[in-house]
């Protein structure tokens, strides 16, 4: 019998019981799920689930071969219906455990604040205090916030598209769980329990995933749900908090602070504009994305304006108003005599009417609350902001300042941040497509018969010559390839979108696989062909609407990055365009492909070197560098804690400018809870602030040892690169092993997401997209891209020394870990990956490889390297336990793995069934559904596998 009457206590920050509320919440949600399972599926299924869980625990803890055989036999005997029920049970537990953990993070943070503890590391107040104590003046801080751009960019993910129904149910469960921390009467406690039970039951009866092929439109809607949950309110709220923090740390003489009006945190998106390898993205999807963006933000503005109209009942019979406010009220379509003395309400009724007209003009089709009368649409978001500021100024000058902060200031702030476009949509396409399109245009205009055959030097000369010509290559009277028409239509759509929704709606064009200077010039020429790059031919003055951003991805690309940018920035036309961009140029670095190309250690090192080289060359050119970090969820794809990652960036690479991708289950993990979401946004701001302004500390690494550390890292990288490449690209049969021992084939077959898993229809690892590559290794619990090669590199490097020199090398590695943030962060991320790696589970997936000799040969290589890596990590850090420095995460992993492991065992069984059916050219939709559910459940359980 559950005890509903006693609320869990918010425990103090110290003591062995600080995780007791978390354990209680997990037990509570587990019991409720078990009750629902019994009610919905019967005791037989519940007993099967429990038996599988217990056997799985025995397999994990005791490495019991008998348990493995028992589990295998048990899973084979499950009927198709039972299999789906069991997979769903363990998948839902992963989701419920995530909710409990998020609530515990909130609980611990609040307990910390209630105790009056010092500002936590990772908070803006902590960063500001550190800067003030280091002597950084207030003016420098103000300048930072006026000039900064910090932009999380949401991207689609092929394996994680939560249905809104599931998100809503989980949001309710989180809210009800939070209520249990408040004092409740027995009756309230019972009511809370009943509601929790009902929401868990709703989850069970709701389809977790979409089973029709996902479209780009589905992915757009999924991303927009996080704006409603988190970004629309929490981002403006964070701005208010930061102003309070600045006032507290740097108080003015009169105790006031001027508001920071710059939108230094802005949202970005790739969903609907990223066409690299995705044939489903075109001009129509871009237009649809912006229409949905605009509808989402305007719905928010309409709701807030309506609420403000109800709240601001201020009467001129009681207090005066400004002339500007009175004029705004007089323009309102509201002529009711009942509100003749309520100018704020009348003004807001007029604002609402203008917002409604704007929403219709920008594509909204369903405005739920009709306006009082007709009004002209706003020409742009700035005009809307101006009206709101008129209201703010009038209130503040007529004893109404207290009425501004609750809603009005937040709405004005939101309008600054989100405009009418909500998020800037990036465009991305691979350089090969640009080359083909221009080859078509050149050939059919008679300018160059075979552009693709030209040397790089000749390509540059031709492109620069065409950029200097007033005429266009394109003619509406010539038939072009379908790809050419599509790409030109997309660029024309971008111009229309900017005119309709504002310049911030689309402002970046990213070039995948940038390898040469001509790759950038090609996009400039395509912009000229579509009116996005325009020149005054009398003055020679040019303007380009979209910043052309190279994406350097592979190891060779990263090594060439600085040289390419130096050449490009030296060109007179590009110099002029960069000046128009505020003497700023963005460069994107790809973590995913560089990892797949060269392995974990080499990828990180080459990224580090590329950043240093870019900083140096940009400083010489007098151009400000903004780096865009293409990070994924996995450590192998640049994942890991964002705060530490930003602080570990090489000196001079942040400077108040940073963009980074957020994707997959990482978006859900960070932003599906409003309070957790605000904390994650604050971490980005705090890290960027600290990395940009904190004086470089005087430590041995920066006083001479850094050069030694970098020299060692170069040697280690070379050794790790060869170990990784030898396994992945040079070992006969490795590709067959990978496609058999991971669910990559099922991920590709099930069409999870709108983008194909591979760039080409083959089984070459070179052509496989980096997301499914890393994701597959996560599913089978090896997470190989996050550690392979490290052990071999360290072991070989130490052995290369003689006698006592071996001890010197070990001491050097330990010094690198203690004194170099880059190396410490690298090892910390690898430590987390190794904590989530499980060879016992991975061995079950290895059994899927039919060729026993191949299986044993490759698997032994992997497990040997795993052992080497663990030993070397322990040698350097001195920690024999994983996550010794992060006990909360260590406990989290242990809490959930007893429920996560069965999903892996079930996935193996379902893969066996699916492949057996495929061999007979048969399909079983229930097996497909089970695999998809297991993929979602494992990803949710690991929380950063995408």
From TrEMBL:
Its EC number is 4.1.1.31. It holds the Pfam family PEPcase. The lineage of its organism: Bacteria, Pseudomonadati, Pseudomonadota, Betaproteobacteria, Burkholderiales. This is Phosphoenolpyruvate carboxylase. It catalyses: oxaloacetate + phosphate = phosphoenolpyruvate + hydrogencarbonate. PROSITE patterns: PEPCASE_1, PEPCASE_2. GO terms for molecular function: phosphoenolpyruvate carboxylase activity. It is an enzyme of class 4 (lyase). The active site is at 157, 596. Homotetramer. Its cofactor is Mg(2+). The keyword Transport does not apply. Belongs to the PEPCase type 1 family. The gene is ppc. Keywords: Carbon dioxide fixation, Lyase, Magnesium. It comes from the Bacteria. Forms oxaloacetate, a four-carbon dicarboxylic acid source for the tricarboxylic acid cycle.
